[in-house]
Amino acid sequence: MLKRAAVSVVLLTFFASPLLAQGKSLGKGRGAKPSKQQTTVRMGAIPGTGIRHFGSWLDDASFLPKGKGWTTFGIGYWRSVDGHQWDVPSIDAGMAIDRRIHVGISTPFSRSSYGDGYTSSGFGDTYLSAKVGLIDPDQEGHRFGLAVVPVIEVLSSGSVLEGDSRLHWALPVTLERRFDTFRVYGAGGYFSRGSVFGAGAVEVPINTRMVATGVLSHSRSLKEDPLSDALELSKARFDLNGSVMYVVTPVVTAFGTLGRTISHTDANASTLAVSGGLSFGFNTVQTHRQKKK
Predict the structure, then answer these.
(1) pLDDT band at 174 (very low <50, low <70, confident <90, very high)
(2) Whole-angstrom distance, CA of residue 228 vs CA of residue 223
(3) Number of domains into which the chain is organized
(4) CA nearest 149: which of 255, 11, 282, 3?
(5) Among 39, 126, 32, 27, which residue's Cα sits nearest to residue 85?
(6) pLDDT at 16 over 90
(7) Residue 6 CB coordination number (10 Å)
(8) Is the pLDDT of residue 27 over 50?
(9) Which among 17, 61, 142, 259 is least buried, having the fewest CB atoms inside 10 angstroms?
């Protein structure tokens, strides 16, 4: 559960930062409201949406035994140059339905506020995933793992651009390499809304109860958008996140994260991303056996 909870922390770090999760148009939660600059530029009849789509995903290639799972409840705060967003709560849950198959779901309830008085609230974008193991790092003699993670992205009603669909997909490929005192893992892939990404993490145990993780991610928008060019919105971004997880009990872990965009600061950049919460482990196989007894 220590490894699984650590990855849940990283995933919630990503979803707490709207621009790292694909469906957040301009990082404004349930939909993007045009800024004054966008409105002025649009008056010049420049084609495009004025919105860059970014996406990123991070997971390892490890798997829990069949029947074990997790539920994580987090609170996230994200700030940009012209507003901020709260995700209360952010929820990440999943379970191993087979030795090499995990299923999961992640979704936030978001509240956004901006300097010109614009506000919005409601459920954010939902991500449904299924991680399939190709190389198991837990097998004897292995220290390397490989998995694919098909993802279905269900956009909130406020995140859908005119003429677009609420359903999209992504295909991350995850890698993991274990060392004697730490491990590294990462993912790379494609989001169907028009972006590619790569993300990597270094996870180091501080002691038997605490783990520290550092994450660097990169995402690049592939779609041409003259209006976004006119607004000088970067086609790529780098983000840096760090997290610390503490094992409270064998089935409960607490975590905290901190991060921001470290590349060009524009309307897409996060100047601060903070989250924290609790992750709970469970074992359906054990519960079933206990009931039979």
Answers:
(1) very high
(2) 10
(3) 1
(4) 11
(5) 27
(6) no
(7) 26
(8) no
(9) 142
Provide the token pair at 225. Answer: 């958008």
How many other C-beta atoms can be found within 10 angstroms of the C-beta atom of residue 269?
21
CA–CA dist 127, 170 (Å, integer): 10
Residue pair 35/271 in contact (Cβ under 8 Å)? The answer is no
Token digits of residue 21: 């999760």
Whether 270 contacts 264, CB under 8 Å: no
CATH number, domain containing residue 74: 2.40.160.40
pLDDT of residue 34: 45
- For residues 186 and 26, what is the distance between their CA atoms, to the nearest angstrom? 25
Closest CA to 271 of 282, 280, 259: 259
CA angle 198, 164, 11 (to 5 degrees): 30
Secondary structure string (H, E, C) spanning 40-67: HHHCCCCCCCCCCCCCCCCCCCCCCCCC
Which of 12-21, 31-40, 205-214, 225-234 has maximum average pLDDT? 205-214
Q: What is the pLDDT of residue 30?
A: 34
Q: What is the pTM of this model?
A: 0.82
184/83: higher pLDDT: 184
With 50 as the cut, is the pLDDT of residue 28 above it?
no
Amino acid code (one letter) for 9 = V
Cβ atoms 255, 276 nearer than 8 A: yes
Cα distance between residue 108 and residue 77, in whole Å: 11
Instruction: Tell me which amino acid residue 96 is.
Output: A
Q: Are 87 and 125 in contact (CB under 8 A)?
A: no
Nearest C-alpha neighbor of 218 from the set 195, 234, 236, 235: 236
**Structural domain that includes position 71:** 2-292
Predicted local distance difference test score (pLDDT) of residue 3: 56
Token pair recorded at residue 19: 């621009």
